[in-house]
């Protein structure tokens, strides 16, 4: 309930405070073990200077960083170069929408094991933290505005035949104007890629069905959490809508 969310919020705030960097310090991506990247087969020195740690997650850490040559400030996620990283970059490049974090680029480190995913900076925190702040639920007008914009973003993704598969308050960031932005698409279901992969199961991809049990269990649809049988198919687009409904409930009830 509210107390659980508030407890999570306090714990997260403490972690964020412990991870903050001195903004005045001169940190470079060399400090993070990435000194150069390769793009289209060419090598480049990293032209980014981190100015603050935004958070850490399962895939890696996210820093606010300034592009030295242009002064542009972006969010830079340092992570392993794996299927999830490539999926996130492809999903973001496919789904361009005002309520989806804009992809700036994906830099592959020359060790071929790490990468830096660059997106627009959303520096007002997670929607989760805003829900915790209000405790008893967001004001109706605010919840309505967030819900409309997030729904519009998901509708756009589904029109592109991409399902997010991890819709939750922690995966919605707020930009400097307070606008919500969907992020973290490493678990996305990209239908045309599944169909082209030559999966042995004709229902996967070509008919828009998924089998992988992914996402956050508190937001996941029943057919994802408790499939009828091992490897049972489910509609990832419908599962997104269930998660969106849970998110709306959290916004209105604060729990």
TrEMBL record:
Keyword DNA damage tagged: no
GO biological process: intracellular signal transduction
Family annotation (SMART domains): S_TKc
GO MF assignments: ATP binding; protein serine/threonine kinase activity
Domain Protein kinase residue range list: 48-255
Keywords: ATP-binding, Nucleotide-binding
InterPro entries: Kinase-like_dom_sf (IPR011009), Prot_kinase_dom (IPR000719), Ser/Thr_kinase_AS (IPR008271)
Pfam families in the cross-refs: Pkinase (PF00069)
Claim: Nucleotide-binding is one of the keywords in the record: yes
Database matches in Gene3D superfamilies: Transferase(Phosphotransferase) domain 1
Stated name of the protein: Protein kinase domain-containing protein
Organism: Diacronema lutheri (Unicellular marine alga)
Taxonomic placement: Eukaryota, Haptista, Haptophyta, Pavlovophyceae, Pavlovales
